[in-house]
TrEMBL record:
Main subcellular location: membrane
Lineage of the organism: Bacteria, Pseudomonadati, Pseudomonadota, Betaproteobacteria, Burkholderiales
Organism of provenance: Comamonas resistens
Keyword Signal: no
Keyword Transcription on entry: no
Keywords: Cell inner membrane, Cell membrane, Electron transport, Heme, Hydrogen ion transport, Ion transport, Iron, Membrane, Metal-binding, Oxidoreductase, Repeat, Respiratory chain, Transmembrane, Transmembrane helix, Transport
Annotated ranges, domain Cytochrome c: 130-210, 217-297
Transmembrane segments: 12-32, 62-81
Subunit structure as annotated in this protein's UniProt entry: Component of the cbb3-type cytochrome c oxidase.
Pathway(s) it belongs to: Energy metabolism; oxidative phosphorylation
Name the UniProt record assigns to this protein: Cbb3-type cytochrome c oxidase subunit
Names of required cofactors: heme c
């Protein structure tokens, strides 16, 4: 592991790069000076296909000059830009730095556009076509990869258009989620529930809470064991938004539906994470994006 944190690989890459460039230049010099003894007809004596002869003409000077120019350009480029191991180049250019400059310029250019939205409440912004168009673009660029272009999510990625919220669906809560991200952890609960059969019974009891198909006998046996889950989900199974504990009574199954899916989560636990966007988006962008997300499940309010 130490090979990846010491200076060896930096020196190795720099040495291989310089040796390769200088080797090409040396090869050019050697070839240019080498004289091939030719016959009286200025050929090398090599014959192909019966009558195809190789002439002994020197390489054109323009070709030699162009080759030298490429070598000089390569050395100048490596002196100015990264390419020699850990050496950053005299211009101190980096992909990260260039990206950050471009993003800063883009944000500055867009600031006047967002300025008109900063003082608007979420409900009013959700009625503004321009704000919603901007919000949709922000969503497509930053959220659709997980939640889908229609915001209806998929397995393990919440549906943002159905009104079911793990941490709350108020404008402030949505802004908080986008800004700081969320980490959802359910520890393995099999040991707390009891035996493997107890886990199966609890799974059927959870299914019964939402009126889903289940084994009524197993569900009745699992009710008393559900107390191990009640600390987060509540004795009534309606969850706790302060903890991000899902409501088990609404027939919304984020990580899969059915006895086996619930047993897997009880046995193995679950870890979900939404990354924070505060380093990528400005406060004004987050406000517009939050309004767009809020509007997806509050379409009636906008009318």
């Amino acid at each position: 592991m130490s090979d990846f944190i010491n200076n060896f690989w930096s020196v190795y890459v720099a040495a291989i790069t310089l040796i390769g460039i200088l080797g090409c230049l040396l090869l050019l010099i050697v070839v240019a000076r080498k004289k091939v003894v030719s016959s009286g007809d200025n050929t090398t004596g090599h014959v192909w296909d019966g009558d195809l002869r190789e002439l002994n003409n020197p390489m054109p000077k323009w070709w030699m000059g162009l080759f030298v120019i490429t070598v000089v350009f390569g050395l100048a480029y490596l002196a100015a830009y990264p390419g020699l191991g850990a050496f950053n180049g005299k211009l101190d250019w980096s992909q990260t730095g260039a990206y950050e400059k471009e993003m800063a310029k883009a944000k500055a250019d867009l600031e006047p556009l967002y300025a008109k939205f900063t003082s608007m409440p979420t409900e009013e912004m959700a009625k503004d076509p321009q704000a919603m168009a901007v919000g949709e673009r922000l969503f497509m660029n930053n959220c659709a990869q997980c939640h889908g272009s229609d915001a209806r999510g998929s397995k393990s990625f919440p549906n943002l258009a159905d009104g079911d919220w793990l941490h709350g669906g108020t404008p402030d809560k949505i802004k908080e989620t986008i800004t700081n991200g969320r980490i959802g952890i359910m520890p393995p609960m099999a040991a707390a529930v009891g035996t493997a059969e107890d886990v199966r019974n609890v799974a059927n009891y959870v299914l019964s809470l939402s009126g889903s198909p289940h084994d009524a006998v197993k569900a009745s046996l699992g009710k008393s064991k559900f107390v191990a889950c009640a600390a987060c989900h509540g004795m009534d199974g309606k969850g706790n938004q302060a903890m991000g504990a899902p409501n088990l009574t609404d027939d919304v199954w984020l990580h899969g539906w059915g006895e086996q899916a619930i047993m897997n989560i009880v046995n193995n636990g679950k870890h979900n994470e939404m990354p924070a966007q505060k380093e990528k988006l400005t406060e004004a962008q987050i406000a517009v994006l939050a309004s767009y997300v809020w509007s997806l499940s509050n379409t009636q309010t906008q009318k």
